[in-house]
Amino acid sequence: MIRFQNVTKKYDKHKALDSVNLEIRQGEFISLVGLSGAGKTTLFKVLLGEERAEGGQVLVDDVDIAKLKKSDLPYLRRKIGTVFQDIKLLPKATAFENIAFAMEVCGHTRDKIREEVPKILDLVGLAHKQNSFPDEMSGGEKQRVAIARALSHRPVLLLADEPTGNLDEVNAGEVIDLLLKINELGTTVLLATHAVDLVNKIKRRVVTIEEGKITFQQEQGKYKL
After folding, report:
1. Which of 69, 72, 88, 150 counts the most CB atoms within 10 A of its CB?
2. Is 18 within 8 Å of 40 (Cβ atoms)?
């Protein structure tokens, strides 16, 4: 599904990614682990086409991202849902409106939006919060709205970049359970985190990145640095 082949990304003289080789298979749940600054977010940005690698290839369904025109990148990104630590919800929009806006951007009709948004909110356990604004929700609820928004265009891959970083243990566990549920429904999930306990609980494939290099991979593994 996705292959990184000898991918290198530099910022000045610093190698944020250093000859990275990684294959992500359809339907997998992968925990990408490493300390802050290890290269997790840079790997996501290169995959999304937000940053261009200086060396190597990133292939999505055998298409080289570096060769895509800027006008084609939005079509790539519709295949990929993204969730971030800082959530980035529209503060003056309800949960329903936040998801609806994302669907409008992708060109969905109003009828389609009215039909699909309640289903997506129900999937993430927030049907009762559709008319709530972000400041009326807990941190965990806001992150689940962000996940719902990322799912609104039915991506084949979900990137979650430290989605539990600002959450307490209970809310963090609920977010991970939701990501596992989404994965079981067929969406490939790539979770970037340095939360040891959560990774060990998931017990899926673990990929360790240190100083821009993939240093360890294990099926059904544990957090290892």
Report:
1. 150
2. no
